[in-house]
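Dear all,

This email documents one entry for the complex benchmark we are building for the journal club exercise. For each entry we list the sequence lines for every component of the assembly. Then comes the predicted three-dimensional structure of the complex as a token string, followed by one or two observations. Please use this as the template for your own entries, and keep the labels exactly as they appear.
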Amino acid sequence: MRIDWPQNDYSRVPYSVYHDPDLYQLEMERVFRGRCWSYLAFEAEVPKPGDFRTTWVGDTPVVVSRNDDGQLHAFVNRCSHRGAQIVREVSGHCKTDHVCIYHRWCYSKKGELIGVPFRRGLQGQGGMPADFDMQAHHPKALRLANYHGVLFGTFSEDAEPIESYLGEFGTGMIKRFMHKPIKILGYTRQLIEGNWKLYAENLRDTYHASLLHEFFVTYGVDRATQKGGVRMDDRHRHNMNYAFSQSDTQTQAQEAYAGISGVELDRMRLSDQKILAYRHEFADGLNLATPTFFPNAIIIQINNSLSSRQIRPKGVGAHEIFQTLFGYEDDTPEMTRHRLISANLVGPAGLVSMEDGEAIEIVQKATRRETASHSLVQMGGLGPIRDLEHRVTETPIRGFWSYWSELMGMEPEGGIR
Amino acid sequence: MTPQFTWEAMSFLSQYGMLLDQDRLEDWVQLFDPQAEYKVYSRENEELGLPAPLIWCDNRAMLSDRVQSYRNVNEHNFHWARHIIGMPQILHAEPESLHFQAGYSLFQTNLEGETRTFSVGRYDFVCHRHAQALRLQRAWVIADTGLVKTLLAAPI
């Protein structure tokens, strides 16, 4: 299988990539089981020995589990016997072992097969063959990396060490968010009827932010004229949109947005302003920071709302966005309340995020019969992929496709990296 | 518990659902006290004891802001809403206030007539009497449907 890239700089994306079921099967192997690291969960979600949480790597169900010795493990949530789900709860605490209900096969907290009922038969009859070796039938284990409390997993023996995978950019951003112990505040889930890569692209498209999410500009939360930009790692697989609050002037913003249909600067005022209140809390002064991690995650700061989002592909035409909201252990009750009020901005009902669900679905609908055609990704320029000191750009989308193509073995001739 | 309270709660819920279904959101906001709380959160978070909401307005002005944003700013999937609200259970009644719960189902129908189940869950409402009518002091919407299809723009 190959892809006919019209340009070698990924400024044209064929619509077939969102619809082809065979391509989807391949990317579950080559991307999600390839040599990259996928975000699994936060360490804070499994704080004690015996704690577990289910998660996904692509569309593979995975259990993250903490053993009695405190070590973290990740394994595929499928019984080695007949393929049933081993862990059925979303999260919880396991006192002794994980037991598959079907035939009560037993798995340790490390994800190893440790018990098979009637293995030796009953009264000399039945049972497994004498040479049956439980050691040879453990569920598939993932390599797990705990980077400052953010858990990543990979199926690949060849994946580079997590520090080098995240790069200076990713490691720096994770340390920034995880500079002290976090406290989980809860979850939201959103089901979007569109291919998962449309969401990955959306996270790399800073062009759309102040246009689709009109709330940003209408209520003066964020506008493209603010000081900010986009950054990527060396391989352009991860990226970040960032901005400094109140770093532009009203005149600059008015001139920039004059004449754009459907977006009007500071058109309205909120009668209760506290939803927009920002309390300085990071040394770098950013009030908007959105590092993404190829292939499936983003950590988002919008003012004082902090969260991660995990992309969970659900077949070629749908994905779930699983969002984990967090604060810090040392937050006062009043600060927690402030974060939860700020959280009105994010998630499936978020005043500056809800529209992504609709935008992605209307792309999926309209491109279904146009798979030989392609989208245009050239805002911010063509050719080389590089960091920019502004946000009127889609360049990181090209970075995503460049790395995706490399993993898939589908780069165009002379494809830029 | 007198039938009177149940009847009052039913009438109130019927009005609440009808105003939403008719897209009369500005009138719906007037069912709330100025200091009323409106919170939508998932049953998943509730059972985990985690506080994160989907929507949280801790006074009526915030709720009006939500409605204004819905009307003027937010893009959403075009649809009609239909709330089917179950028989309320009165949890506590006093002459001037009423605490009750009721199950709800919310269907969305797109403009070409295709219907989907959008949300099911329960209302947990505290009302007090204001000029003969009930008015909300606290409206919690606890959604069993934590998996939001597409997006959640209009209130439940």
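Observations: Chain A has a mean pLDDT of 94. Chain A has two domains: 38-145, 168-408.
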